[in-house]
């Protein structure tokens, strides 16, 4: 980890620095407490100065909320096109994070010793420690309060889980692993015709929910791949909890494992744009790298008579990030034909939120499952 330095108690202090987005530690750090005014904190944060909080934890949260409200008051420029609206929205998200992440908290062995602070150690450990046998929390760790609250929220969701109708049980997402809250794509996985595949692959498995759904539908052997250590640990834990360890093998791979399969399923990120944090790689696929990698490689890994299932939203087309005919062109270039296209409308909250800057695109969005075969 990088070190963050600041001046306190008449000497220079140092601690390990944590940033999920990979941001460097702030160069300018001042001490803040319960007497710090919101306007002054906002001014400092806008100038790039971070505030290491030494007062009451609940007051630190209130200060963060006050800074966030001031950020959100900035007027939004009218956008001429949906693509312009998207780029403005992303720029606003980045700017908002840059400012609100300036309120910092210090942890000692994963615990916060500020008055009225909750017990955050389990949440921090769950977020930062993938291999509990070899990794330990540092003695002194500084991170943004916003990130710490995200860890706490993710920990609660991890314990609670997300109900999955196809499994008749819950899937539990780890911190940094995209939760299957958009259940409509799982409806497609559960409904698509199966031609009695003996071996199936789930590419980019994440929580392992697609692999588990395939087993529930009768597939005897599934290989689930991912290149994220967090996702691999998460999928393995869900597989164990579901008692599917004899049916599902979790493997680390950028895309495909070795060999061939009867069915290969992939639900890649839907938007070809830059990801600004690791969790965003589940949504943003720069230059459609994963999508193209899957399409161009799947033919070599399908058994004769096998199928590939691609689950893909058309939100990128409605925004203007991808041309309407791009996907069909890429199918043809990869030597793949569409046997069937199953569709479902999104049911998540943003699809009906007219205040969302991308509402005009979201209201038209459709998620499809393309059944593909080799030509």
UniProtKB/TrEMBL annotation:
Q: Which InterPro entries match?
A: DNA_methylase_N6_adenine_CS, N5-glutamine_MTase, SAM-dependent_MTases_sf, Small_mtfrase_dom
**Signal peptide location:** none
* Keyword Metal-binding among record annotations: no
One Pfam match: MTS
What UniProt keywords are attached to this protein's entry? Methyltransferase, S-adenosyl-L-methionine, Transferase
- Locate the Methyltransferase small domain: which residues? 191-314
Q: Name one GO molecular function term.
A: methyltransferase activity
Q: Does the keyword Magnesium apply?
A: no
Q: Which GO terms describe its biological process?
A: methylation
Q: What is this protein called?
A: Class I SAM-dependent methyltransferase
């Amino acid at each position: 980890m990088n070190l963050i330095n600041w001046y306190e108690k008449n000497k220079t202090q140092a601690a390990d620095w944590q940033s999920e987005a990979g941001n460097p530690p702030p160069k300018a750090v001042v001490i803040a407490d319960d007497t710090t005014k919101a306007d002054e904190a906002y001014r400092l944060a806008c100038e790039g100065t971070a505030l290491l909080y030494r007062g009451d934890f609940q007051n630190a949260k209130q200060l963060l909320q006050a800074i966030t409200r001031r950020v959100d008051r900035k007027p939004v420029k009218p956008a001429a096109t949906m693509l312009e609206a998207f780029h403005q929205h992303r720029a606003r998200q980045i700017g908002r994070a840059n400012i609100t992440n300036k309120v910092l908290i210090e942890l000692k062995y994963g615990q916060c010793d500020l008055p009225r602070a909750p017990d955050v150690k389990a949440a921090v450990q769950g977020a930062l420690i993938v291999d509990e046998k070899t990794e330990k929390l540092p003695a002194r760790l500084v991170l943004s309060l916003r990130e710490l609250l995200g860890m706490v929220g993710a920990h609660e969701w991890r314990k609670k889980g997300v109900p999955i109708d196809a499994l008749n049980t819950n899937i539990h997402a780890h911190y940094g692993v995209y939760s299957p809250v958009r259940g409509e794509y799982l409806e497609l996985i559960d409904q698509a015709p199966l031609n009695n595949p003996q071996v199936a692959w789930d590419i980019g498995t994440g929580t392992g929910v697609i692999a588990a759904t395939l087993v529930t539908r009768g597939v005897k052997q599934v290989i689930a791949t991912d290149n994220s250590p967090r996702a691999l640990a998460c999928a393995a834990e869900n597989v164990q909890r579901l008692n599917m360890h004899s049916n599902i093998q979790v493997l680390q791979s950028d895309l495909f494992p070795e060999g061939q399969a009867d069915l290969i399923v992939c639900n890649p990120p839907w938007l070809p744009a830059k990801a600004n944090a690791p969790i965003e790689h589940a949504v943003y696929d720069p230059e459609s790298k994963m999508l193209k990698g899957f399409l161009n490689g799947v033919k070599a890994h399908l058994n004769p008579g096998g199928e590939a299932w691609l689950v893909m939203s058309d939100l990128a087309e409605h925004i203007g990030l991808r041309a309407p005919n791009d996907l069909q062109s890429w199918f043809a270039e990869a030597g793949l034909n569409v046997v069937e296209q199953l569709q479902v409308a999104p049911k998540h909250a943003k699809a009906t939120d007219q205040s969302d800057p991308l509402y005009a695109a979201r209201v038209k969005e459709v998620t499809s499952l393309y059944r593909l075969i080799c030509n």
